[in-house]
Automatic annotation (TrEMBL):
Organism: Devosia insulae DS-56
Protein name according to UniProt: Racemase
Matches recorded under InterPro entries: CoA-transferase_III_domain, CoA-Trfase_fam_III, CoA-Trfase_III_dom3_sf, CoA-Trfase_III_dom_1_sf
Any one GO MF annotation of this record: CoA-transferase activity
UniProt signal peptide: none
Keyword Electron transport attached: no
Domain of life according to the entry: Bacteria
Pfam families registered for this protein in UniProt: CoA_transf_3
Keywords of the record: Transferase
SUPFAM superfamilies per record: CoA-transferase family III (CaiB/BaiF)
Amino acid sequence: MGILSGYRVLDCSIAMAGPFAAQRLGDLGADVVKVEPVTGEWQRHTAAGGARGNKVNVSFLSLNRNKRSLAVDLKDPDGKAVLLELVKTADVFLQNYRPGVAKRLGVDYETLSKINPRLIYVSISGYGEDGPYLNRPGQDLVLQGMSGAMLSAGRDGEPPNAAGQYLVDGITAYTAFEGALAALLHRERTGEGQLVQVNMLDAITTIQMQELSVFTVGHKPQVRSAEPHAHVYIRAPYGAFATSDGFIIVAFPKLANLGQTIGEPSFLTMDDEVDTWTKRDEIFAKTRDRLKTKTTAEWLELLRAADIWCGPVYGYADLVEDEQIKHNGTFVEYEHPTEGHVKTPGFPIRFSKTPSTVERGAPVVGQHSRDVLREAGFDDAAIEQLLSKGAVAENGI
């Protein structure tokens, strides 16, 4: 029994940010009903990395565990009536339609809150519910580019590099998850539901609280270096450096300490609070040249012994075998009825009395339509009529 056991979430979202937020609610024990078209949600048909599955591709599998699937045609009056019936007893409704679509479908906050005033309605958008960018598509890399963050690292004059994660989607998902939890807490205290709005642009902007404050309050310009320094607002050396057999991270050590450890005498007389900014490229280049002379393991041992912040640069093959990752149980493993053995990232929050568990893997489209309708009060005859009409759909395993 997870900490959110007893709460029901209607997940009408697609792609990554919305489904990921809903999955986190499911991981905490909420009954998440994945409300999707009778042909299946968009992500079922778009295989990230080309990783397809038997009946469920890896993209969908990774974002939709601990959910049940109700396949329903919201453009069919009977199908929409099914959803509106479910809203009566739902706690959270989550959608990331483009602005205006929810209203056209008749599932906007104003409509649903009249049916269930206690409903927490979470709406995720790319840029907000109104404004000049209303109709622009909210896509992760596009928002990374707009965020300003891509010009806080790398070489001056060279194209910026994207993050190695779907960063904006992930941050937006966690923002929506946080908003849903806060609104549920408010409802527990007051009994009232509310609208919760999250947009990707604000999420990726506000996560840069420190960096943007350095710019807006401290008036420090965002200037990249000739060397690939890892962040414009962190003193040198700071970044990833090649070793004789790989790469290593070194993070703003005291220069005298670093100079003694790597054998760079010019660092011994430099000022940590002045030269690390004014001679950033020189310090980076000299550190880079010294670190090429030994292996990653050799440097990690020497630098850690000198109390210098450092670490390896992992690929995924290294990450999954890391001893701390194994100790933490960061990945979970379970058997999926159509995809077989699944190993995937698990739960970032640990509760001593209400631990998260994988109760079910990602469903096939409409797998739980019949069960969900029964629980909502539809009798078998009504369910058969909806199925035969095509207003809802089901699939067995």
